[in-house]
Amino acid sequence: MSHYHHLSMEEREKILVKRTENQSVRSIAKDLGRSPATISREIKRNKCAKSAYSAVAAQTKYQKRRKNSRRKKLLENETLNAIVKRLFLEEQWSPEQIAARLTHEDSPFCISYNTIYRGIYAGMFDTEKQKRSQGNRGSKRKLRHRGKTRRKKGAVETRGKIVISNHLDQRPLEANERQVIGHWEADTLLGKRGAACLVTMVDRHSRYLLAEKISRRTSQPLAEKVITLFAHMPAE
Question: Distance between CA 236 and CA 227 in Å, rounded?
């Protein structure tokens, strides 16, 4: 693996100063910790019209060469960009569908759905208004998961779920076979609008039901209502 590092702007400025002082290529290379061949190529490649080395011109040429040498992104192709943009925004196709369809139709373009996702998240299909807006999430909102972070395959969602410390197979035999009174099962019935709900407590043996409504299905109102339901029940 190559450990070569391109010359920095600071190094180019030092080359300019030392060349102005008429220092030799070998002397400059020694001071900068570079090979004489590197310094020689740098000077020859970046002479200006008056045959003098220019640090500014050298840095400008370097940045231009670096830009031109990088691999162009697939979605920078105007034709492919237009196809993907139309299918995604107008036809509401998913990136997976777009990539598969182009392959199925033997299209001259071949692109993976991951590349399309990267283009979407990079804002390549956003309008100018969306790009200027601070709060608008742009074309990501067109994704079926509405731009939310996608979970990895096999990941288990844990948000909003209660960790169960005891499983049903650990239930006592007398409760499991409904032998005695006093083993209760709790449940909640959510209302149509998702706010108020019904709390139910059912004795497994007698099937005696306790039920009452609470305004919200959250832990505090639920706990308070269960205590209220059992307040009038005998201790034994």
Answer: 16
